[in-house]
Write a structure and sequence with these properties.
Elements lengths: L1 H19 L4 H6 L52 H7 L9 H11 L2 H11 L3 H10 L9 H6 L19 H6 L14 H19 L2 H10 L1 H13 L13 H18 L17 E5 L4 E2 H8 L3 H7 L7 E2 L6 E5 H13 L7 E5 L6 H7 L4 H8 L5 E3 L4 E5 L10 H6 L4 E3 L4 E7 L6 H7 L4 H8 L12 E7 L5 H11 L4 H21 L1
Antiparallel strand pairs: 1-4, 2-3, 5-7, 6-8, 9-10
Helix pairs in contact: 4-12, 6-9, 9-10, 10-11, 10-12, 16-17, 16-20
Amino acid sequence: MNRFRLYLPLLGALLTTACTTLPTADTAASGDTTGSTTTTHTPRQTGPRGPAVVPSGPLQTLTVEAPRAPTPAVAALEAPADLWVRMRRGFSLPELDNSLVRDQERWYSSRPDYIQRMTERSSKYLFHIVEEVERRNLPQELALLPFIESAFNPQAVSHAKAAGMWQFMPATGRHFDLKQNAFRDDRRDVLASTKAALDYLERLHRMFGDWHLALAAYNWGEGNVMRALRRNKAAGLGTGYEDLRMPDETRQYVPKLQAVKNIVANPARFSTHLPVIGNHPFFDSVTVQRDIDVSLIAQLANVSEKDFRQLNPSHNKPVIMAAGTPTILLPWDNALLFEERLRLHQGPTASWTAWRVPSNMTAAAAAQQHGISEAELREVNKIPPRMLLRAGSTVLVPRQGRMDLDVPEHIADNGQILLAPESSGKRQVRVKVKKGDTLATVAKRHKVSVTNLRSWNQLAGNASLRAGQTLLIERAVAPKTAKASTKAKGKTTSAKAKPVKKKTTIASSKTTSKTTNR
């Protein structure tokens, strides 16, 4: 009887535990899940029982394990194979819905050839731009801006001298550290201009707190948008994008972007076909350690010079200067090939270098000094006809002798070509060489450069002179006297001319005022 009393609490605890135990594997497999708790029924043993097992030691509290919640299946997120799909997922600009958007939708969708050319050009650059926009957590619509700005043509130049895919004005480009010198224009550089454009757009958005106003400022200028906002506030008018008075180009700017976004978001709606652009890099960046000719890059990378310049549009010279541009872009599959071949390359990598012009001289004189034709010097350095080089200009010339060193950074980054018109009022003077004269002494005596003296007389650099020899020297024709100039001025300024001059000035003032107020 005492043994029974000893076992009774233990028996109660075991019964309670049995009632709150989770289903066993066998029960779960049989599908018996009719309640939150399940009792497991064990068949009664019919054979002889063994000796009873009496537990020893203090009794311990039994804990009941709470049932685990089922783990939901995780959906695998795969990167889309099509870049357009990736862009659509990132569209987040506020929608603009008005008649201007409808007009732009009709304009673009009615020009399938134009869309085809734009999108094919963009296929080289768009992945990089999408990556940068996504990395900064910006609206993916911004990656479409080059369609509006330049039709994705990195060589585009506007009538206002804006250049590149993102159409930077010279001063704005310099503000964002886009180098513009004799050897490159970073406003056209794919990497540099994209970084600068997104930096600028982020700054404008912080300034205005509104993406539509930020885009208007990108097109029209932040100062103009600020003044338009102040005018509207002073007049008690709205301060949204559609409320401001602005030039027609800016008025159409955001509707154009919205229209292109709508077409990209749903091409079928506009009966438009977008070529597939793979969601993977088109190019890779390669670092160069030495100055290198573009022709050699193309040869080692197995690409055409045209294809190279499409990826490196900031360069319009036949050589890449490592000190100024240590990174070049090559098609993804060709970048590794270039690096491998460059390591094995024997011999010089560059046949051109930079030369600082010591004094004003003609292109012919500079060409003769460096052993190339005047036509080639003008073509390589883009020197227009009837223009001479001013002192301090930096031009490309063939490497020779001591000029085999790479171009230093301060020249690669800051070299400029300074031009001046060739004077048409010149006369030739013949002078006699004295005993003991050299080119240097003759040049000094007549205040001309040795280079020009050689050029005028077609002499070699080491030419020796003999006494009595005749040399040609060009001198500028003296200007007209002040008296003659005053007389001519008096003749042209007649009483009849005065009203015309005044009328022209008034008309010009009206035109300027009208343009400013637009």
